[in-house]
Every structure is written in C-alpha cells, then in structure tokens.
Amino acid sequence: MPNITILEERQAQVLRKEDPGQVACGKRSVAGSVSQRACVFCGSRVVLYPIADALHVVHGPIGCAAYTWDIRGAQSSGPQLHRNSFSTDLQEKDVIFGGEKKLAAALRELIAATRPKAAFVYSTCIAGIIGDDVPAVCKSLTAELGLPVISVESPGFSGTKKDGYRAACDAIYQLVGTGDTSQIGPHSINLLGEFNIAGETWLMKDYFRRIGIEVVSCITGDGRVEEIRRCHGARLNLVQCSGSMMHLAQRLEKDYGIPFRRVSFFGIEDTAAAIYDTAAIFGNADIERRARDLVGQELARIQPELRRYRKILKGKKAAIYVGGAFKAFSLVRALRTLGMRTVLVGSQTGNPQDYAQLKELCDPGTVIVDDSNPLELAKFCLELDVDLFIGGVKERPIAYKLGIGFCDHNHERKEALAGFEGMLNFAKEVHASVMSPIWKFTPRRSKQLHFQA
Amino acid sequence: MNIFSIYNPDIVAVHTTCLSEVIGDDIPTIIKKSRDEGKIPEGKVVIHANTPSFVGSNVTGFANMCTAFVTYLAEKSGGTTTPTNVFPGWLDPSDMREIKRLAAELRAPITLCPDTSDVLDLPQTGIYEMYPKGGTTLAQLKGLGDSPRTIALGKFTAHPAAEALEKKCGVPFDALDAPIGLTNTDLFIDALRQAAGVEVPASIEAERGRLLDAMSDIGQYFHNVPVAIFGDPDTVIAVTRFALELGMVPKYVFTGATGKAFENRVNELLDGPIPPAIVKAQADLLELHERIKADPVKLIIGNTHGKHIARAEDIPLVRVGFPILDRIGHRLFPTVGYRGAMRLLEKFSDAMLDYRDRTCSEEWFELVQ
Fold first, then answer.
1. pLDDT value of position A32
2. CA-to-CA distance for A255 and A439, rounded, in angstroms?
3. Which of A31, A95, A397 is nearest residue B2 as measured by Cβ atoms?
4. Which of A32, A400, A444 sits opposite B1 (nearest CB)?
C-alpha cells in the first residue's frame, strides 16, 4: 500500500497503546473520509428488526427499505414477519404533496393482511424533511386499529447511527409498562442488546434456565411484543450491546428502579463472568451453585477442543474493527484464549470510557482507531502483518483482497459465536479462515513468482 | 477537498440522494463554486447525476449516471475516431469482458461504457486497489462524441445515454436489446460488423454453431415448458426472447421497474402462436407468488429474490441478473453472447433435470438423458 496518510481531522482518532492521551471519538464523520458507519435510520432498523411479531414499515422511498431487507441473521422461533421490509414507496408527487395519507393506507392494509402485535413506522430522511407528521398518523391509527402503531424518529440526517439506536430504544419504551407482571418471579432478568444472531439468544436463555433464572424478555433477539410489554417486571437488566441499549437500560432504572449490568457473552472469560455476576446479584445460594456447575460442565465440554485450536493458532496476529467497542473487549480476550494477539482494534461508535478501557486491555504496540475508513484499515493490516481480520460485511473485501483470513462478527454472521458453544464455533471459524490453504497461494504469503523464468 | 487529498481520484461522480434533492442542492453550482475556490485541483473532473430514490428505480439511477458521462464529458472535436461506442447497460463484469472478447474476435475496436470488468472482478493480487486498471478512461469518455456509431444494448439502461450522445454530438445509434440468447447476440454481432466494417470470422460462426447445436440437442426438454421470468427490465426482455427461442412458454413476465415500454416490448416479442402471458411493469414478487401458486410454472428465471417463491412452491430457480446475492459465478462467467447463452442453457437444463431426478418415480429415473 503506497503511503496512506491519516486525514488531519482524523489524527486524534488513531493512536498506539503507548501514545499519551486518549482516542478522540463520538465525532461526526469527516466529509470525504468515507466512513464505515451507517445512518440513523439503519441504526433503528437493525435494533428493532428482530422483533418478529411486529410489522416494520419504512416510511420513505423504496431504497431505504430495499437495502435493509432481510439483512440480519436474527432468528425467530416463530413468526417471520420481521424479515419483510415493508415500504410506503414514496414517489415524487408524495414528496411534493406529503405522504401521510399513503402511510395511513399502507398501515391499514398491512395490519389487516399480516395481523401483527404492533407496528413500527420508521421515518427516513424524506419523511423528516417533507414534514410528514408521522407520530400523529401513528397515534390516530393506534386509536383506530386497537394496536400500538409506534413512530420511530429516525431520519437519516438527524445524527449518527448511535442516534438511531436511541430512537429505537424510545420506540420500544412506548410498549414498556403495558403488560401484566404479576406472574414474574424474584429471580428474573431481561437481556438487552442481544439480537439472536444465528440463534445466540437461545443459548443464553438455556444457560439462565439451567441456573434457575427467568428471562422475562430479550430485547430484541427472537423478540415478541408481549414480552417487551412486561419487561418492567424483571429484577435485573443485563446489557450486552451497550452501544445500542444503554439508553433503554437507563430509562428502566430511572422509571422502574431496575438495576443493570453490562455483560458480554463473547469468549469464555466474559461468558463465565456474566453468569457468575448475575447469580451473585440475586444472592441465592442455589443459583450460585448451579451457576458454578454450569460453567464447569460447559468448560469441560469445550476445553479439550479449544486447546487443540490454541496450539495451532498461537502467535497469530489479528485486527478487529466492529460497531460497538464493548464487543471489541471480548474479542481481544477471546483471541487471547486462542493464543492470538490483537494488533489493531477499533470501532465505529465507541465512547471515551470504552477507548480508555481498550487501551488498558491491549498489548504494547496495538493500534487503536475510531470511525476508521477502508484505506486506513488496509494500511494497518499490511503494516502490522495480520493473519486475521474480524469485522463486518464492509471489511470483508478489504481482508480478502489483501489475502488475509476473515471472521464475520457482525450481524450477518452465520455461526453462533456467543456463549461457551459460541467460543468453540469462534475457534473453528478463526481456525478455518487463518489456516486456510488458500492464503499460501496469495502474493502476501507466497513471496515467490508462480511461474519461474 | 478531503476526497482529493486522501483518495486522489481523477474524477468524482456525485450521485444525489433524496435529501440533497429535496433541500434543493444545486450540484452544478456547487461544483463550479468548488472549482473557483480551488477545492477541486487542476485537471480533476467532477460530474453529477440526479438519482433520488423517489424517482423511478435502480434502473433510472443507472441510466441517469450513464447519461451524465455523455452530457458532462463527451466531446465532438471534428475528427472521427474508429472505435464504435458500445453501451452495455446493466450487466455483470463477466458480461462486459465477454463483449470485449467478441469485439476483439471481430477485430472491431470499441469503447465500452461503462465497463466494470477489471474493476468488480479483480484478480487476487494481495493489494487492496482503490483504482483498478479496468474501466472506461476519461479520454475514452471524451472520445465518445467522435465515434461514428453507438450500439446501445438495453432500452432502459443503455438507450437514454445513446440518445443523449446523438443529441449532443450527432452520433447515430443502434437501439438493441441486451445480447442474451441467439437472436439478440446475432443482432449485436451484426450491428458491430456493420459499424466497424469488418467480416464475421469463422471462429464466431463456429461459436454460434455450437450454441445452435446444443439448443437442438436439448430443445426437447424446453419445448412448451411454462416459465416465469422477472428482474430488471432489460435482462427480462432479453431472457424472454431466449426462452421463446428454446420453445418455452413465458407465463409471467414481471419487472419492478416503471414504464409502459417494458410491457410493450415484451408483448411485441410474445406476438406469436403461444398462449397469452401476463406481462407487468411495476409489479412485485407477492403478486408473482400468488399467480404462481394459482397457476404454476416449471421454472423460474430471475434474481436472488425469487428464492422464497422457489422454495415455497418447490420450483427450480435459475439466477440471472446483476447482482446475484447468494451464489458465486455471475462475475466469473458471462450470460451474454453465444457462450453466455450456452451457459444459460446448461443452467436451465441442469435445474430442470436435477429437479426431475430428485422427484420422479423410480421407473423414470434414468442414467442417460
């Protein structure tokens, strides 16, 4: 890669562990930098997407719906309604004359046809700028049709993807507190920011069932409207994807006095810590004993195989670029479990505390980036000579074109990577990619001409 | 400024979005102002096309940007250059590569615009390239106006730019469909032969002959087979013609794009002794699914989005169109030209025969077919 310079405005968003100070973050992306981030609407859409018995209607021109159609591997054990991206397909004349009537008509027709438990209506850039009063349409249809029709305030121009997460939390909050909580027991939790990618929620629910903890709702993985309605009856919130769900956790704490804990189910250490911490909070000896048994059993099941992978992967170098920084912590630790070293790590939406913690956690020499772009990522991958890139769909071509193994840890992933079983899947996937025989033919590794003169 | 300082492109193509259109950003004025203020370095080019999501479809946006290449860049210098302009429309990079191969075989120099080969189908070189070696160059885009003729392959995605070029620089054009199938490829080869004043070499005749031979060999499996065809309009129009050449009966011919022109063109093609088909523009897959449920077909030809119908109704799906989201191969092997037709033929028959082998009763399960 020829000398790639970091844009002057971005200098503070890139540093090495040894450098003084902290990574600058939480900034708007620099125009012309080509950020890897997405828009406000996309942020809302991906958070609410897994609520499977709700209708998701995108109020805007067709593009916003088409490009977010069935894009998350968020599985449902029942309804599949969420996988459709319904749209009001706004046309030029709607832009001029307003789209409220069209929205109301679409909602009436879709609700009659699909019988959802609730409807989410996403405002896109256009809905925002032509001034459609989406909340008013939603309010009148809620009254008319007798089910919650909820406005999601997510015009793309109104901030960053993070603001979309917040809008999604506010939309969810309209359902909270409307269900009956009388049957909820004392040892009960909500899982916030867990999206059931490749069935991960089911693994976690199984762990909690086995140690005697009731999961009232998962927001939003394999999500159901009824569960969200009664989530305020749980005694504790576990927040996994903190980037998206901190706002909801804080509101539930403020209004209902439900404490929350940030947890992660990626990697052995973090999964075990999440289970132990949760058990400890309830202060029940039986739960704590069952938690120890569970962790013991699960570790015994996966350790021998993990050790085999560790032997092979020891000393390999990895780059991590993910949406939320909290996941990056877990990945650094999970890679350590596999004997690997993280030499580049970054996120799209990390906050100052995240980056301070990341800096603390990383090995000497590690480069830390906030809101990076393809050229920077490619430059560091080559300079640091990584063997593996962990990222999402936008990072995949960068890795493959450079001849680097890749692990998809974003919401398009096909394997469950959370929990103990997920750690084993993660090891398998990392191993399969890093050790693929294909890389030895690529110019970066072969170091020789394939046709000798 | 940041784009030029970090990425250093020769040309920036600005696509407007819903937002910039509605707030009324005047792109030409912004471009001019940026140039005057020195934000666009000397010798660098900025062009734009209006592509708000609320007007037309993906096809409209593609056609608008192709037209912008012409209106911004094509020049008539007075001299006439040899290359024939070929506007390929909405195709895979492998198709662009095949069009260039056919032209080279004919010894007909062409300027292909746009050209995604060696851009979207780069070899693995160990380098993440921002500006791969492929694509139409700026000099070629300027030279479009000096060409004696344009061949435009697709009513929706290629003809608008050809019309703009005729208007701007007086370059006449052949308005053809995409070169998918036997006749459509014949028409393309013939147009190129005439424009370039060359003879069709024996090698191309032989390629055509091999396709025809394969069609005769396997035609029995296609005759009177009801099919559904859907996708982007230019692809659907061309594939419909190929289906008819094979004796298939297109039962549903759908596109999501707008425009009566689609229905008119398909109905022209269907004008013959075949049962009436349902031809619809601005249609959706829900309707296609309902119709197939009520009155099934034996094969669906369309893009990835057809997989839900194919699975629900247990009907084989052959993927055609760009981009295909869930299978490899489309950027590697062409659909256009005689070779592309051979590949489609293989895919159609594989899909139908695999289905038959999987579902037929034992006495019909045969080793030799």
1. 67
2. 54
3. A31
4. A32
**Per-position DSSP letters for A405-418, written without gaps between them:** EEEE-STT-SS--S
B67 is a domain residue: no
Q: What pLDDT is attached to residue A409?
A: 85
- Find the closest chain A residue to B21 by CA distance: A126
Q: Which tens digits make up the pLDDT trace of B161-213?
A: 999 999 999 999 999 999 999 999 999 999 999 999 999 999 999 999 999 99
Tell the burial category of B81 from Cβ atoms under 10 Å away from its Cβ (0-12, 13-18, 19+): middle
How many domains in chain B? 2
**Residue A94 scores a pLDDT above 90:** yes
Percentage of chain A lying above the pLDDT 70 cut: 96
Does residue B262 lie within any of the structural domains? yes
CATH code, domain with B20: 3.40.50.1980
Q: Where are the beta strands (DSSP E) in chain B?
A: 11-15, 45-49, 84-87, 110-112, 150-153, 173-176, 226-231, 249-255, 278-280, 299-302, 317-319
Place of tokens 């009388």: A182
**Can you give the pLDDT at residue A2?**
44
Q: Is residue B188 part of a domain?
A: no
Domain of residue B34, residue span: 1-55
How many contacts does A have with B, using Cβ atoms within 8 A? 85
**Is any Cβ of chain B less than 8 angstroms from the Cβ of A71?**
no
Which helix (H) or strand (E) covers residue B68, if one does?
helix B58-73
* Active site members of B: 18, 22
Is residue B31 in some structural domain? Answer: yes
Interface of B with A (CB under 8 A): 1-3, 5-7, 17-19, 22-23, 52-55, 57, 122, 124-130
Q: Is the confidence at residue B84, as pLDDT, over 60?
A: yes
Domains and CATH numbers, chain A: 1-33+314-413 (3.40.50.1980), 40-172 (3.40.50.1980), 188-293 (3.40.50.1980)
Tell me the chain A residues in contact with residue B323 when contact means C-beta distances shorter than 8 Å.
none
Selected residue of B50, B124, B258, B290 to mutate for chain A interface (largest A Cβ count, 10 A):
B124
> B22 and A130: CB-CB below 8 Å?
yes
CA distances from A438 to A433, A434, B279 (A): 9, 10, 47
CB contact under 8 A, B7 and A443: no
